[in-house]
Amino acid sequence: MLRTRSATPLFAALALTLAGNAMAQEQVVKIGQTGPLSGPNAFAGKDNENGVRLAIEELNAKKLQVAGKTLKFELQSEDDQCDPKSGVAVAQKLVDSGVKYVMGPYCSGVAIPASRVYDEGGALMSTVGTNPKVTEGGYKHLFRIIAGDNQIGSSMATYAAKVMKAKTVAVVDDRTAFGQGVAAEFIKEAKVQGLTIVGQEYTTDKATDFSAILTNIKAKKPDVMFYGGYAPQAAPMARQMKQLAVSTKMLGGDTLCSPEMGKLGGDAVNDVVFCAQGGSMLDKTNDGPAFKAKYKKRFNLDADAYAASFYDQMLLIGQSMVKAGSTDPEKVAAEMRKGSYKGVAGTYAYDDKGNMKQAPITVYTFKNATATPLASY
User: Is the torsion defined by CA of 245, 254, 34, 46 positive or negative?
Assistant: First the structure.
């Protein structure tokens, strides 16, 4: 009995030592996620978060080793509300929490001011903010993981001119950094393609009534109308176009490719809304169908616009840490710029500004209120 009693503390001490050694061999890497988790664009913020979460779960299952330690990725998700002021506050919160890797923001209006905070905090930022200004700050740890407005806006103008054979166009934007940016790029390329801009109108990202704008556009009879803005406004706009018998097609950027368009717009979006989105047609890529099925099984939801892009980038970051032999953002960023990574949504190779060197674009329309791909470029 005396031996048993004396051995029990010994075994307990040994167990604590082993547990301590195991803990010592593990390195926690915090991953920040910032996007709209409330408000009209919450569907997009949650989808982006899910893409990151799925990748983190896979990375943790692989038990990646860096400098003799097993990496354990932990997600810290924050709601930036697609609002610049909130986004900067969230950025400071993540930096103060010791987060060195940030996935997001979703909105360009947040990405532009927040990028400075992340850069000053030494964090690596991966965003889908498409406004050209996002990557013009000279920050070496910033990556745009999809095509920018210059590619998205110009591709829609080219499609309108060459495929839809449009001659005249009206342009509407919601005055956000994204909306203005993509509309400006559309106009620039539209003029190159010989399209005539017959009118420009403006709204906000909070508006619900577009009757005055649409009445003005109807009077000018443009072949197509380009809308720079988000799905929560574009979908009811499409409904009001149907009610007012505005027969023009609505063109837009990546935000209009969201399933939210079909949910909010119903049959009003069918064969009326055309949009361009960064990335290849997932159904046509080697790993796209498997990713969609995996996402559906994990979250009981269909993947939205950029879940695959965030998933890809997160896996690339994990791979780059192993290759660099470090979790230091500066070393990881340098590794990410060295080569290329073939992901679900495309091949990721970055220029010195953090833009993708070759970002595929897919043009969609809606059938049965569902985005249906027409062509990839």
Answer: positive
Tens-digit pLDDT profile for residues 13-68: 555 544 455 455 999 999 999 999 999 999 999 999 999 999 999 999 999 999 99
Tallying the residues shown for the chain, one arrives at: 377
Q: Is the peptide bond before 113 cis (omega within 30 degrees of 0)?
A: no
Q: Can you list the domains of the chain with their CATH numbers?
A: 21-147+284-345 (3.40.50.2300), 150-278+362-376 (3.40.50.2300)
Predicted TM-score (pTM) of this structure: 0.84
Cα dist from 129 to 40, 154, 262, whole Å? 17, 16, 23
| Helix 231-243, helix 211-220: angle, nearest 10 | 60
Q: Give the SS3 label for residue 148.
A: coil
The contacts of residue 168 (CB under 8 Å, 6+ apart) are: 195, 196, 197, 198, 220, 221, 222, 223, 224
Calpha distance 156→341 (Å, rounded): 27
Angle 264-166-367 (CA atoms, 0-180°, nearest 5)?
30
What value does the mean pLDDT of the chain take? 92
DSSP string, 7-51: HHHHHHHHHHHHHHHHHHTEEEEEEEEEE--SSTTHHHHHHHHHH
The span from the CA of 79 to the CA of 83, in Å, is 10
Distances, alpha carbon 173 to alpha carbons 7, 35, 230, 337, in Å: 75, 21, 9, 34
Rounded Cα gap, residues 359 and 84, in angstroms? 26
| Residue 30 CB-density burial (10 A; 0-12 exposed, 13-18 middle, 19+ buried) | middle
The three-point CA angle 336-35-276 to 5° equals 75
pLDDT at 216: 97
d(CA 40, CA 184): 24
314 Ramachandran zone, left/alpha/beta (phi>0; psi -120 to 50): alpha
